[in-house]
Write a structure and sequence with these properties.
With 157 residues, the protein is α+β, with helices and mostly antiparallel strands. The chain has one domain: ornithine cyclodeaminase, domain 1, CATH 3.30.1780. Helix 4 links the parallel strand 8 and strand 9. The mean pLDDT is 96.
């Protein structure tokens, strides 16, 4: 039977170090030919748009998709995760926070391999929703002592 994870559950269960580890493993699996990641495709309607991204990992034995809608009301995110041998649905996950953490984790992995070991300062353009997890991830892999942020909004900085 599939589980349902709401945004609250994702926030409670997923920390940035776990997200960094998972993204690094998925990228390694993709590099080794064990994982497939399909480009995003879109379906446009007059007032909104549906976006779908699919991926699978043979080593983990799972595949799934992230679908989200975007309209003037905002965006709504959902992940469906399947067992690859049987096709059984494993989980339905509300994925706004999950996507934020994945995006941040990708910055953490990049920083881990591309930034100097002694890097202590980070600069970031933008202070929106994604910036939070990106800074968390960079700080998780480097001993950051100083952050310089650019934002059009003084309050957000």
């Amino acid at each position: 039977m599939a589980i349902l994870l709401r945004e609250q559950h994702v926030t409670e269960l997923l920390d940035i170090n776990t997200a960094i580890e998972a993204v690094e493993e998925a990228l390694r699996d993709q590099a080794e030919g064990q994982a497939t990641n399909r480009p995003r495709y879109r379906v446009a309607m007059p007032a909104s748009q549906l976006h779908v991204m699919a991926a699978g990992d043979r080593r983990l034995g799972v595949y799934g998709l992230k679908a989200y809608t975007a309209s003037r009301k905002g965006a709504r995110f959902l992940v469906l995760l399947y067992e690859s041998k049987t096709g059984d649905l494993l989980a339905v996950i509300e994925a706004d926070r999950l996507g934020q953490m994945r995006t941040g984790a990708a910055s953490g992995v990049a920083t881990k391999y591309m930034a100097r070991e002694d890097a202590a300062t980070v600069g970031i353009y933008g202070t929106g929703w994604q910036a939070e997890s990106q800074l968390m991830a960079v700080c998780a892999v480097r001993g950051i002592k100083s952050i310089s942020a650019y934002s059009r909004s003084r309050e957000r900085r």
